[in-house]
Amino acid sequence: MKKYQKSEVRNQRSGGILLLAVILLTGCASTQEARLYVLDTPASLAESTVSPAADKMPVVNIASIQIPDHLSRPVVITQVAKNELAFSDFHRWAGPLQSNIRQVLIENLSIILQSDRIFADPRKQSFPADYHLEIGICDITGILGETATLQARWAVLSTEGKEVVALENFQKTIDIDGKSRRDYVNAQSTLFADLAQAIAKSIPTK
């Protein structure tokens, strides 16, 4: 009877030690915080603007931005092979990627066109839009430490959305200056500035 009790005590102690080890390891794993990223406007963008006359500034409404489901995720996605994507739960977008893209395009187009008439919500406009933009993001990936790629297509529509004024495609790959995901996001910000420049050229002035 005594031998059984001693063995049971040892087993209980061993189980307690194992449980404590699991708790400690879990606690260590949970201390790693996720890094959050946002697309932004490069400082160099202001150096190349269209500069239309004040009375010719078009009112532009970014009506919609579409992103493929496999890319519309809270994590920053990169490419490791032709048909293989990768991500880490510790590297995430600070908010919905679609909203971030919409906001950065508004900022970029406002700078390029030197206009405060770029919107993404017609309900907040005090005057009607001259053109509507429909933008589809086809690819926003890249290989860490190597390249970043952005592929998109867009349509410039008339006021009522019944006439297609312009229908364009954009595809560009650039080298990444650095090996971190922050460097990767910076490269994507540069690509979205390039996309905004291409879009701006397709928008007619009044």
Keyphrases for this structure?
8 strands, 3 helices, 2 domains, 5-stranded mixed β-sheet, elongated, Rossmann fold, 206 residues, alpha/beta, 3-stranded mixed β-sheet
Q: How would you characterize this protein structure?
A:
It is built from 3 helices and 8 strands. It is an alpha/beta fold. The chain has 2 domains: 1-31; 35-202, ABC-type transport auxiliary lipoprotein component (Rossmann fold), CATH 3.40.50.10610. Strands 5-2-6-7-8 form a 5-stranded mixed beta sheet, covered by helices on one side. Strands 1-4-3 form a 3-stranded mixed beta sheet, covered by helices on one side. Helix 2 crosses helix 3 (181-202). The protein starts with a helix and ends with a helix.
CATH-defined architecture of the largest domain: 3-Layer(aba) Sandwich
Averaged pLDDT, please?
Answer: 84
> What name does the CATH topology of the largest domain carry?
Rossmann fold
> Would you report the number of β strands?
8
CATH class placement of the largest domain:
Alpha Beta
pLDDT under 50 segments (min length 5)? none
Describe the main β-sheet briefly.
5 strands, mixed
Give the domain tally: 2
Total DSSP helices: 3
* Large-scale geometry: elongated
Read across the widest sheet, the strand sequence of neighbours is 5-2-6-7-8
Structural class call reads: alpha/beta
Oligomer: single chain
The share of residues in extended strands comes to 25-35%
Order of helices and strands: HEEEEHEEEEH
CATH H-level homologous superfamily name of the largest domain: ABC-type transport auxiliary lipoprotein component
Q: Please compute the radius of gyration using only Cα atoms.
A: 25 Å
Share in helix: 25-40%
Distance between the termini: 98 Å
